[in-house]
Amino acid sequence: MSKIFAKLACFVVDRPLIVLVAILVFSGIATTGYVNATLVTDFFRAEKLVDGEVVAESYEVPPDVDPVSLTNSHAIVVVESDSFFTPSGATAMRSIVSELESLDHVDRILWMDRIPILNIFGLPEPLFPNQNSSQTRFDDAKQRALKHPLVAGQLLSEDARHLLLLVNFDFLFVESDDDVTSGLREACETAAKKFSDVQFDFKVTGRVPMYVTAIRNRDQNTYKYQMIAYSMIAIMAVILFRGIVAVVIVAVAPALGVFWSLGVLRFFELEGNPFNQVVVPVLISLVALTDGVHLMVQIRKRRAEGHSAKEAARIGLSEVGLACFLTSLTTAIGFASLMLSSSEIVWEFGASCVIGVTITFFAVIGTIPLACTTFLGRWLHVGHEKGVIDRNIGYIEKIVEFILRRGKIVSGIAILSTIVLLLISSTLRPDERLSNNFPDRSEAVIGLKQMDQVFGGLELGRIDVRWSEDIPSDSPVVLKVMRKIDSLLRSEGKLGSPISICNLLDALPGDGKDDDRMSMLELLPPPLKRAFYTPEYRSATANFRVRDTGIAEYGPVFERIELGLSSLSSEYPAFTFELEGNPVWRWRNLYQVVVDLALSLGTATIIIFVILAIVYRSIRIGLISLIPNLFPLAVTGTYLVFSGQMLELVSVCAFTVCLGIAVDDTIHFITRFVEENRKSQDSDQAIRIAFTSVGTSLIMTTVVLCAGFATVLWSDAREHRIFGAMGGLTIASALFGDLVFLPALLSRYVKSKNSKSND
Question: Which of 234, 353, 472, 666 could form a disulfide with 335, with the two C-beta atoms 3.0–4.6 Å apart?
Fold first, then answer.
């Protein structure tokens, strides 16, 4: 294959006009993707008509009733005070709610004072008395509120110190992000200032504030720390290269690779994938940077030796081209394993990586040699002899010599340590938390944690129950089934405040069997009755709260619930049960995404071994390549274990990116070694030459990338810090594996083909 890339090098260097036209054409195609991708997608999209018969089940039309809903609010204001059930506290709270409702973008607010009266006679017994009422009446109201099924544990904490305001917006009048976040708190604080004798604390959280916080944080931090990281990378590159021309040329390939890839992804409608917004650009730019540095170092060496710009570019590409191709091939095929996942998100991520890595390969081998043959090539070698790494490479060569003399011991340590660290890393378990997507100090997260403590969780799960037409909606069997579901939920101590029609009926006075209690549903106010029960649709619902402690903790809980529902289905075949809600969705989907991504790492490793064994025509070299590729991942996995972390989306993505980079350096070293080993009678000498050829590039890419990852450690986003720490640790460990373990393994287990001692 070396001959093929020698011919490719001649073509790229000797036909610069064709290469330039290809670059411009591809840039135009990518630009079309950014401007209007539908010009291409609409042309190729074929309309598919599917014939089918839809069988609709008949239902009665329910009356026009607005049921009480604890789940559909856009935002939640968590109010903390010791004085809710006092005359001044009641006056202040009504003033606060009135202030909120005066905002144009606030549509309605549900809170304790708006809950319908739970009284079969309809007598006016408000949960929140008039401010002129006596303290005794307020004390009685407090006790009634703590017994009300829709208030206790739902809108009012058990200690009566925390109260929830469920806010819904009219988005037509929302003018800024602050309107749905800090603006609510500021309105509450403005109203509360009028009542200096009552102390309040407000936190705004909920679905919309958390979404806005996540988007705002992602946009701000992504731009901010990308700029810092890229600046740091540029500064380090200038210092190490000691030549601004070389840095500019190397930077062109990652920039074009990212630009082309993201533009092309739009033709396949993949740009909306959450991984593609952050992970794919980082992966593409780092892989391109790694290959670009290796190529540039070789070209500069040849230029410094006196070769012309064209000749230096031709020789450099012929020497490094095969390694660049193998790194792109192994990375692309490794990510293609993600396309075997049942998750659409993971499938799209894998496809995007394959497209991006493939495109980036052509960006590297096209733009860098082309730029080196222009007027920039005249000054390309300037500063080469002053390079920090080149001037000190002799010290590192002494380390390599030390390792070669002790190849047996070092190779044994390499194999044993990698196995041990992999075993430790295998104890990592998948997990995902809602708060992981937000800054730790954001108001939305503080409010979420507060609700976890005092309400049993912010998020709500539910069990949807339906029954066949054979079961009358007022049948006592319905209540019996709902009681068993309520018992099932209450048996799980990690679930907070289960609520269904059982709670409403039990709150009514009197005793009786389910036959009698079921008939009392008709005596409930319609908004309460239909909060968890819709007879016209033959459906009922049981809600429960879930703390944000991770899907790993709640996974066994949900499994036991589904097992219990399965038993109920067998006992009551006319009923169907579905476990639903955002926490359940994350358990079923995000958990599987993490598992799929983790499995893909193992698949990618096997694929890399197979490819390298085929290309180098040696199973032994394929096996040797596993150690320096697995060792950095094992080191980082062990770090996560001992630091108490779990296997999350961000950590698996970091592993994915770092595997692609670690493989790059290993392949460059092995490729150079194999070429020299064919010509040499001493495998150790081949290792020395390989190190001299690629050692500078290995160290340079490691220093530059670690500097870039380090800048993210100061981000206020937890995901960014984890990604940065894992990236830096993995890259540094990969360098150790390539400079210490790999030479020892090659010296111990691979002999020169020309050596008399060859097996």
Answer: 353
Scan for tokens 């976040």, then name that residue: 181
- Across 332-346, 347-361, 446-460, least confident range: 332-346
Q: Which residues, 6 or more positions from 64, have their beta carbon under 8 angstroms from its beta carbon? A: none
CA distance 318 to 594: 40
Looking at residue 382, what DSSP letter applies? T
Query: What is each CA distance from 179 to 79, 208, 681, in whole angstroms?
Result: 18, 11, 75
The domain 459-547+550-587 is placed in CATH, from the list 3.40.50, 3.30.70, 3.90.320, 1.10.10, at 3.30.70
Query: For residue 291, which phi and psi values (nearest 5 degrees)?
Result: -65, -40
* The residue to which tokens 């460059």 are assigned: 668
For 46, counting Cβ atoms within 10 Å of its Cβ (0-12 exposed, 13-18 middle, 19+ buried), the class is exposed
Task: Give every CB contact of residue 598 below 8 A, 6+ residues apart in sequence.
Answer: 430, 647, 652, 655
Which residue, chain included where needed, has tokens 């070293």? 669
Residues 6+ apart with CB under 8 A from 560: 492
pTM: 0.75
Nearest-angstrom CA–CA distance, 167 and 78: 11
State residue 57's pLDDT score: 52
Is pLDDT above 50 for 48?
no
Place of tokens 């991770």: 550
The SS3 call for residue 109 is strand
**119 burial type by CB count under 10 A (0-12 exposed, 13-18 middle, 19+ buried):** middle
Judged by phi (left if over 0) then psi (alpha if -120 to 50, else beta), residue 649 lies in alpha
Q: What is the Cα–Cα distance from 457 to 110, expressed in whole angstroms? A: 18
Domain ranges of the chain: 1-36+242-380, 75-211, 387-427+589-759, 459-547+550-587
* pLDDT tens digits, 636-689: 999 999 988 888 877 877 777 777 777 888 888 898 898 888 887 788 888 988
pLDDT exceeds cutoff 90 at 74: yes
Distances (CA, A) of 368 to 7, 9, 372, 572, 731: 17, 11, 6, 70, 24
For residue 76, give the 3-state DSSP assignment: strand
Token pair 């029954």: residue: 467
Contacts with 149 (C-beta within 8 Å, 6 or more apart), sequence order: 118, 499, 503, 504, 506, 507
Q: Is the dihedral of CA 438, 444, 449, 451 positive or negative?
A: negative
Three-state DSSP class for 287? helix
Q: CATH assignment of 387-427+589-759? A: 1.20.1640.10
Q: What is the mean pLDDT of residues 560-565?
A: 96
Contact 670, 618 (CB under 8 A): no
1-36+242-380 maps to which CATH number? 1.20.1640.10
Contact 336, 350 (CB under 8 A): yes
Helix/strand/coil for 463: strand
Cα separation, 513 vs 515, in Å, equals 5
Torsions phi, psi of 268, nearest 5?
-100, 5
- Lookup result for tokens 């890399």: 608
Which residues sit opposite 201 in a β-bridge? Answer: 80
What is the distance between the alpha carbons of residues 96 and 110, in angstroms, rounded to a whole number? 13
Mean pLDDT throughout 604-611? 79
Same-fold call for 1-36+242-380 versus 387-427+589-759: yes
